[in-house]
Amino acid sequence: MTDTTATSTPPLDLTEQERQADLDLDQLKQLVGLVEYDESTDPFPVTGWDAIVFVVGNATQTAHYYQSAWGMELVAYSGPENGNRDHKAFVLKSGSIRFVVKGAVSPDSPLIAHHAKHGDGVVDISLEVPDVDRCIAQAKAAGATVLQEPETVTDEHGAIRVAAIATYGETRHTLVQRVVDGQTYAGPYLPGYVARTSGFVKRDGAPKRLFQALDHIVGNVELGRMDEWVGFYNRVMGFVNMAEFIGDDIATEYSALMSKVVANGNHRVKFPLNEPAIAKKRSQIDEYLDFYAGPGAQHLALATNDILRTVDELRTEGVEFLDTPDAYYDDPQMRARIGEVRVPIEELKARGILVDRDEDGYLLQIFTKPLGDRPTVFFEIIERHGSLGFGKGNFKALFESIEREQDKRGNL
């Protein structure tokens, strides 16, 4: 007799960061489009984001900015006071998102040369994995560059196992295994870091947090290399292709780019990868590559379940967003396409929030202006309602808005 019993996919589980943030699976499915998947069949299983590591010119002030403007919480620190003579590093959290901002202390720190070349930006997209050795074996077999061989690092809070591989530009993926020999590491971040709180006090009425999870990170690469890096994530890390945007999808009268999206099995980790395309003038990708001096992470999409309040609170703290012309909201074709959404269009119009609908639902999104002095890294705020997309219907309006800012800077 033939056994017709179907093999069931193991149920999704929360990461430790998500548990600590009091999130649940239903929330995450809405926030970031989480899907079921069988980790046991994946040669390079990725649990989710571990930390996004920035190199900045002044980590002390940047850490304060992320607390005061973005509502993040300081949870850990490494610096001269606890034996790190090279740099200061501040660990900040919001929901299940962990940022680490690093700034040089020693005049001989390699962070100085990195910052001189690139300015403020993401140096490490660190990923949590259940088995570092398995991932590195797969990476080597697939031809990836291993920057750090697997090693176990310990302190009084337990042990972690780490390794690192190279990706586009000078960006790396540090792989962090937080369960070693059945024990979960109990420290505030990694060995070498100590728990740290801040004297910063939020103003009365400020929400507990402004965003709950990281939705995706966009990488910009050189002309002709997008498919190479899509292939890297497919071949090395087993990521699947989610979407592709080319031609008129992603062009204006003046500039154009091409984009493909890859994701890990459970879709916690999503990477749109962009390259410039030939057009009349220089695209936002060209501008980024010039001012970052090479490929890198262009923007981070922060997921919230209340984009109106998040945007209002951020504007109160001085965060600047790209402008959207009134004509976008008054277009009858756009209104017919998006249908009913949870808030009146007038409320979105007042804040410059974009809306897009696909076969699965809709999303609301808005983009900041560049966060630093160079026109490179910026943030997106996103609120999903079923949609698993990236705002394809908003590309033209968004890129025209970016072009207006580029033109002011003299870089279009």
Task: Give a structural overview.
The chain is α+β, with helices and mostly antiparallel strands. The protein is built from 12 helices and 19 strands. A hairpin with a 6-residue loop joins strand 14 (256-263) and strand 15 (270-277). It is globular, with a radius of gyration of 21 Å. The protein starts with 15 loop residues before the first helix and ends with a helix. Residues 1-7 have low confidence and may be disordered.
What is the first-to-last residue Cα distance? 69 Å
Radius of gyration, in Å, reads 21 Å
The total count of strands amounts to 19
Low-confidence stretches: 1-7
Structural class per helix/strand content?
alpha+beta
Mean pLDDT: 91
Amount of helix: 25-40%
Taking the sheet with the most strands, its summary is: 9 strands, mixed
The oligomerization state is single chain
Strand content: 25-35%
Shape: globular
Number of helices: 12
Strand arrangement within the widest β-sheet reads 6-7-8-5-1-4-3-2-11
Summarize the structure.
With 412 residues, the protein is of the alpha+beta class.
Q: What secondary-structure arrangement, pairings included, does this model have?
A:
Blueprint: H1 16-20, H2 25-32, E1 48-55, H3 59-68, E2 73-78, E3 87-94, E4 97-104, H4 110-118, E5 121-128, H5 132-141, E6 146-155, E7 158-166, E8 172-177, E9 179-180, E10 183-184, E11 194-195, E12 213-220, H6 226-237, E13 240-245, E14 256-263, E15 270-277, H7 284-292, E16 296-303, H8 307-316, H9 326-330, H10 332-338, H11 345-351, E17 354-358, E18 361-367, E19 378-385, H12 395-409
Parallel strand pairs: 1-4, 5-8, 12-15, 16-19
Antiparallel strand pairs: 1-5, 2-3, 2-11, 3-4, 6-7, 7-8, 9-10, 12-16, 13-14, 14-15, 17-18, 18-19
